Amino acid sequence: MTTGARPVGTHTPTSGGLAKAALPYVDAAGSEVVQVYVSNSRGWALPSGDPVQDALFRTGCAERGVPVFIHASLLVNLGSPTEATVQRSALTLEHALRRGAAIGAEGVVFHAGSAVDAGHADAAMRQVREALLPLLDAAGAAGGPMLLVEPSAGGGRSLASRVEQLGPYLEAVDGHPWLGVCFDTCHAWAAGHDLAVEGGMTATLDTLVATVGAGRLRLVHANDSKDLCGSTRDRHENIGKGTIGEPAFAELMRHPATAGVPVVVETPTEKHVGHAADVATLKRLRP
Ligand SMILES: [Zn+2]
Predict the structure, then answer these.
(1) CA of 41 to the centre of ligand 1 (A)
(2) N or C terminus: fewer CB in 10 A for the chain?
């Protein structure tokens, strides 16, 4: 299998065993990159993982030339005004980085988070700094997976939803080299970037690069949307079937900022079928 200049794949289910469930799914979907959860996406439990499945998965992905990414629990919010949530979030990221090293992952994606209360915004960014710096230093020193911050769909005092807001976020960790960016098209659209207008995706990616610098973008979540631009709603749709539309994804797959960057869909699917169609569409749209 060729990984291509922009390998395309899917968020991939793992229930039943990391290797046992995910590798057949990778093959069925035509994936050239894989993203998995290593803990419940809506829980705080931190499972240790099965060493046999870890080894089989790592080998299976290496044999296929498929890079691996982890999506951290959706509960992670380093900006929370609730101290217990901040502590659990940091432990969850530490766990995901450890699991990522075990399965050969390149990156751990987490949502930028929100301050929840207007009065908590400054404290939230200090929390981000205090939680992330030790994790980034340790991961960098060990040569482990990078942490990848994903701007959110907006609303709820988001710390970063519009791509310009990644500037202060990166400044909060002194531009640490082990913090990359994951750009989610549905989130950016929800946050008010008009990706559907001709040149809109290109302009948004230009702004992203101008804000964070070349090479900081390490992963793309390619998702169409069920909602309108600026809705702050995060309901994903299959590529070309939603309000963003296929031409925007053609711009995405041709933008210089995505050269060499893996592209993962997190779209609705029946078993692997919807995902396989979206993977095929994105492969067709790349140069
Ligand atoms: Zn996403």
Answers:
(1) 12
(2) C
Q: How far is the CA of 231 from the centre of ligand 1 (A)?
A: 16
- The rounded Å distance from CA 57 to ligand 1 centre is 22
State the distance from the centre of ligand 1 to the C-alpha of 49, rounded, in angstroms. 23
**pLDDT tens by residue, 47-74:** 999 999 999 999 999 999 999 999 999 9
Q: How far, CA to CA in Å, does 135 sit from each of 130, 157, 260, 275?
A: 9, 24, 26, 33
Distance from the CA of 286 to the center of ligand 1, in angstroms?
20
Alpha helices in the chain, H assignment, sequence order: 18-29, 51-64, 83-103, 121-142, 166-172, 185-190, 200-212, 246-254, 273-285
Q: How many CB atoms lie within 10 A of CB 118?
A: 7
Mean pLDDT of the chain: 96
CB neighbours of residue 171 within 10 Å? 11
Cα of 201 to ligand 1 centre, how many Å? 16
pLDDT at 1: 34
Cα 10 to averaged position of ligand 1 atoms, centre (Å)? 11
* CA 60/CA 20 separation, integer angstroms: 10
The confidence band for 114, taking pLDDT boundaries of 50, 70 and 90, is: very high
Name the DSSP letter for residue 148.
E
The three-point CA angle 242-246-247 to 5° equals 130
218-245: string of b/e by CB count within 10 Å (b at 16+)? bbbbbbbbbbebebbebbbbbbbbbbbb
Cα(1) to ligand 1 centroid in Å equals 25
In this structure, are residues 215 and 166 in contact, taking their beta carbons and an 8 Å threshold?
no
The structure's pTM equals 0.96
